[in-house]
Structure formats: C-alpha cells, structure tokens
Specification:
This protein is α/β, with parallel strands linked by helices. The chain has a single domain (2-105, 116-139), classed as Rossmann fold, CATH 3.40.50.300. Helices cover 20% and strands 28% of the residues. The protein contains four helices and eight strands. An eight-stranded mixed β-sheet has the order 3-4-5-2-6-7-1-8. Strand 6 (122-130) and strand 7 form a beta hairpin. Helix 1 runs parallel beside helix 2. The longest helix has 12 residues, at 11-22. The radius of gyration is 15 Å and the shape is globular.
Length: 162
C-alpha cells in the first residue's frame, strides 16, 4: 500500500507527475480522481494516459460533454470518464460502463462519487486540492507500491490517512 502527497507548482508539473505515475500502471485499474472544479483532474489525466502510452498529452481533453473518451495507443485502452453531469443511475447506465469494465483497461473517472456500480477492479484513489493559484496538492492512495525515489516521482511526504 502506498500513500503519497505530491506538491505540483504548475500544469506542466502536474502533467509530469501524472506521466511518472502512468508509466507504473497496469490494467485492469480504476483510477478515481476527486477534487473541486479546476483542481487539475484532466491535467493529471493528460500525464497518466500519456505516461501509460495511450495517447499524447495534446490528444487528451476533458470529456465533460462527451462524458467518455477512449484512448487506444497502448496495449490496453485507457478510458477517461467525466461524471460531473451525471444525475443518477439512469444517466450512468446510458454510458455503457458495464462494457468498459468487461475489458482489460485502465479507467480514469472524474467525479467518482457519482459512480454507483459494482466492480472488482483494483482502485487507485487520487484527490487534488488547490494550494495557490498554480499549485496543487495531489494525494494518492494506491493499493500497490508507487515509486518512492524523489527522482523521478517527487514525494514531499508520506501520509497515513486523508
């Protein structure tokens, strides 16, 4: 089990941290991204998906209106799901996520409190917080070990709970 707290001081830094984490991931994996609007969830996703090899950072955009984006540049697909506009179970079922969870994939979900479905996937929880204008605190709760070396993954401190 790995609990990390990372400070990011710019969008580029958030993408770089995501890239470092993404390079360590394997499917099937569900990544739950929480945080306020503008906290950097999609920015971190750019790094996660590009680090895994699913798409370039430029290809990764917010699925706020499409709700689900699929990136298939890696050996397994990466799905980026934004549930911000989902209002209930009926809306959730229209997305076809049951089919996604039947695949060997990495699924990144923004606004995971709206994800009300059963799955038995490994879950990586990430919470992003505004610290200052361009700075973010990224709290990671992983059921597996992530890189702890300050280089390449900048680790500011280990936490016991959040």
């Amino acid at each position: 089990m790995s609990k990390l707290e990372i400070e990011s001081h710019s969008s580029d830094d958030t993408i770089a941290r995501g890239r470092e984490i993404g390079a360590q991931l394997s499917a099937p994996l569900l990544i739950l991204l929480s945080g306020d609007l503008g906290a950097g969830k999609t920015t971190l996703t750019k790094g996660l998906a590009s680090g895994f090899g699913a798409a370039s950072e430029e290809e990764i955009t917010s699925p706020t209106f499409a709700l689900v984006h699929r990136y298939s540049g890696a050996s397994v697909p990466v799905y980026h799901v934004d549930l911000y506009r989902i209002e209930g179970t009926r809306d959730l079922h229209t997305l076809g996520l049951e089919d996604v969870f039947a695949e060997n994939a990495i699924v990144i979900v923004e606004w995971p409190d709206r994800l009300k479905m059963h799955h038995d996937w490994t879950v990586l929880r990430v919470h992003l917080e505004h610290v200052a204008d361009d700075s973010r605190r990224i709290l990671i709760d992983a059921p597996f070990e992530l890189a702890t070396d300050p280089n390449p993954l900048k680790r500011t401190r280990t936490t016991t709970d959040f």
